[in-house]
Amino acid sequence: MNLMNLIVIGASFWGFSSDAVVLPHNPVNAAVGDAVRFTTSLEPTQTPFASIQWKFGNKTIISTPSNTSSPEYLGRITLYFSTGSLELTNLTLEDNGEYNVTITTAEGALLNGSTTLNIWEDVSNALVTSSAQQLPEEETSLNLTCNASGSIHTREWMKNGFPLNSSANITFYHEKQVLSFRGVTREDSGRYTCRISNPLSHQEAIYSMIVIYGPENVQISGQNEVLLKTKLKLSCSAKSLPASSYVWEKNGTIVARSFEFTKDNSELSDSGEYICQATNDISLKTSEESHRVLVTAPKDQLSAGAIAGIIIACLVVVVGAVVGGFFIYKCQ
Ligand SMILES: *[C@@H]1O[C@H](CO)[C@@H](O)[C@H](O)[C@H]1NC(C)=O
Ligand SMILES: *[C@@H]1O[C@H](CO)[C@@H](O)[C@H](O)[C@H]1NC(C)=O
Fold it and tell me: What is the pTM of this model?
């Protein structure tokens, strides 16, 4: 005979009804369709209990010794007579609530117990939606809303895998169903995850936020001076999201549609002003920058006409030297 029984017998001896706790205090979590067993803390008895009564609200689940039961529990319950424990199968959301058991021992002591059953429906169809589709940087507010089917207990938000907390720019509403930005900036771009959970299941929904900006800070790198017949290569960059597309122009004519302009054998006519225009293909905003290029001939590679002139001048010097009776040999 254990201490509990001694106390119970003692209580009944003095005519009190005992408040002995025969069920755990913690709520029991179960999913729709599952089975649950409410296990009492009682040792199996040799002498059967005088009566066991399980109730859910006002409804009698099972009552002994008459074995009466509400119709909705037919085929769903198993009563363990020796401990007073009860198993309930085919759980539905309607089974959510408080359960009470009253046991009268063979000795006439009353034992009571109550526990709470929380039924959870699996989280499914989790989804994050945005109050705006295309997001330019702006001062107006933006909401991300996180919803799912099933039993929602908690929502948590993460950005790029790190927990997201409220800040000067971020406020949460309706138990974190809504993540509200005061105004979006390019720093708010990223992968937002909403994790919806209940004690038995969870699901995540992801929203990739792209805050559109640019093009800004268009820069051209490449030669300012290039030797005739060598390679001319200019490249253009800009800060932009999504990445810019680029067009190169010279004298009002498009010469390339790429971030790079190249010419393998530059000609003298390639000298001039090159303009790179960057375009954000979503906002259609543009920005441009210009760059001067000079194609030069090398100093020892003179034109054919200039070379002929030098030879003629040389002959004149030689002839003059013979006539004048003296000799100048230096002629190249
Ligand atoms: C309980 O669910 C099982 C399937 O999981 C089914 O075969 C049985 O008929 C159900 N019983 C009741 C009483 O609904
Ligand atoms: C964002 O949600 C909050 C709270 O529900 C609401 O007051 C506000 O008007 C919403 N803003 C937008 C832009 O939808």
Answer: 0.69
